[in-house]
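Section 3.1: Structural characterization of target chains.
Under the original work plan, the team committed to producing a structural model for every single-chain target entering the pipeline before any wet-lab resources were allocated. The record below documents one such target. The sequence was received from the expression subgroup and is listed exactly as submitted; it comprises 201 residues.
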Amino acid sequence: MKDTYKTITHNFEGEIFKDRGSKFIGHVFPVIDEDEVKLHIQELKVKHHKARHWCYAWRIGKEQIRFRANDDGEPSNSGGQPILGQLVSFDVTNVLVVVVRYFGGTKLGVGGLINAYREGAKLALEVSDIVKRTIDIHFKLTFEYEHLDKVMRIIKERQLVIISRKMEMNCEYVISVRKKEAEEIKLVFENLRCLEIKTLD
């Protein structure tokens, strides 16, 4: 079972790619939804207000990956698609790549544009800090205070991550478990018979 994915840690900017006077600058951003995508593009349009095009592509999701490519006025599939191709090639997700073009006065043709946007994206991804992360399942454990030692023993033995804890009339813990270990861990807690365990979305 695949329970890892690759993403980036923070924003990066690649080296400038030049072709016949046009300049292409790749920008990479970690994103988790389309609102973030819109925000980053708006910010780049302010930062590079003299540029002609802001072509982009993104991939979002850990298991079910959604994606989009946008040519921003360039000929069809000459901007966004080559950028998306680099995201697939680097096998990253939850990532937005925007390649900003400053027009140099000479048309590059579709082939030239495909190459330029691909290179702009590649240069930015090459300098990015790409990390491997695990796909995790979150469980909520609800139990009476007297059973805390038993629960904590399992958490420590299995080196599970506690996301949150509430200690009131009873105890409520939210724990994070690697996907491939989730069924086994759930069974271990169910066998305690002194708590309720729920899978969180």
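The chain has two domains: 4-133, 136-200.
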